[in-house]
Amino acid sequence: MFHKIAPVPPDSQFPRNYVRPEQFDALLRSLKSAGYQTVTFEQYIAHRRGEGVLPPKPIILTFDDGYRSNAEIAVPIMRRHGFRATIFVVPGHLGQSNRWDAEETQEPLLTAEEIRALHADGFAFGSHTMHHSRLTVAPTDVAFEELRASREALENLLQEPVRSICYPWAQHNESVHRLARDAGYACGVGIRRRLNRASTDIMALHRIPVTYLDSTWRVRWDLLRLKFRYE
Ligand SMILES: [Zn+2]
Fold first, then answer.
1. Could you tell me if residue 231 is inside a domain?
2. Is residue 147 part of a domain?
3. Residues 200-216: tens digit of each pLDDT
4. Contact in structure between 62 and 189 (CB atoms under 8 Å)
5. What is the pLDDT of residue 78?
6. CA dist., res. 126 & res. 183, Å (int)
7. Is residue 33 part of a domain?
8. What's the 3 CA to ligand 1 centre distance in angstroms?
9. What pLDDT score does 196 carry?
């Protein structure tokens, strides 16, 4: 899980949302040489249903919030290594900024046009709700509408089904999972330093956060050691 690939601004309130460009480049080079191949959530959903085959070392790179710097900095680096990613965007704020983090440096978000261009280049998109909503505390009808409307807005934009949801602030529970299913999603992601297995709840998939503090070897070590953690 990534947010922004960029130098860490000195005044950032959430510096862990950053990975430096040279650090990201080194990590992808390492993953590439180890044989990892990026896949999409569509491929993963099919795999979980027993349809379709994943490459031997599949990995999904995800970006939360959909910052414009993803297109400007992260995408060229991923392209160089032959990798693609899934970007979780907030359709109610396209082309605006991360106003849900009022105390954080405001950075521009991708516009609809930029999202379409990245999609044409093989990048996948999922929903991060309509307004970066706290789904566990919002009234049920509001939470459902945040889920449903964002899926519909993205499907209109991309002209294809959108079936992955990234819960804002990684706040989710059983009732949020049920709402997400009812709103048309086939998988959901939170944050937990584990790999995803056949037994992992597909509406609560794990993601390993990567920050500017994590070396390439830390990430590679996690990917190795977590193979042996089953709980
Ligand atoms: Zn977010």
1. no
2. yes
3. 999 999 999 999 999 99
4. yes
5. 98
6. 13
7. yes
8. 8
9. 97
> In the structure encoding, which two tokens stand for residue 35, read together?
């044989």
- Give me the count of residues in the chain: 231
Backbone angles phi, psi at 118, to 5 degrees: -65, -40
**Per-residue pLDDT tens digits for 101-136:** 988 889 999 999 999 999 999 999 999 999 999 999
Interval between CA 91 and ligand 1 midpoint (Å): 12
Nearest-CA neighbor of 44 among 156, 177, 167, 200? 200
Distance CA 126, CA 86 (A): 7
Q: What is the pLDDT of residue 231?
A: 79
Domain holding 191: CATH number? Answer: 3.20.20.370
Q: Give the separation between CA 107 and CA 73, rounded to whole angstroms.
A: 14
The pLDDT score that the predictor gives to residue 207 is: 98
Sign, CA torsion 92/99/143/86? positive
Calculate how far, in angstroms, residue 5's C-alpha sits from the geometric centre of ligand 1. Answer: 15
209 occurs within a structural domain: yes
Cα 65 to middle of ligand 1, angstroms? 5
CB 147 within 8 A of CB 108: no
The low-confidence residues of the chain, meaning pLDDT below 70, are: none
**Which residues share a beta bridge with 126?**
88
Number of structural domains, the chain?
1
Domain extent, residue 152, equals: 4-226
**Is the pTM higher than 0.85?**
yes
At 230 the pLDDT is 86
CA 60 to ligand 1 centroid distance, Å: 17
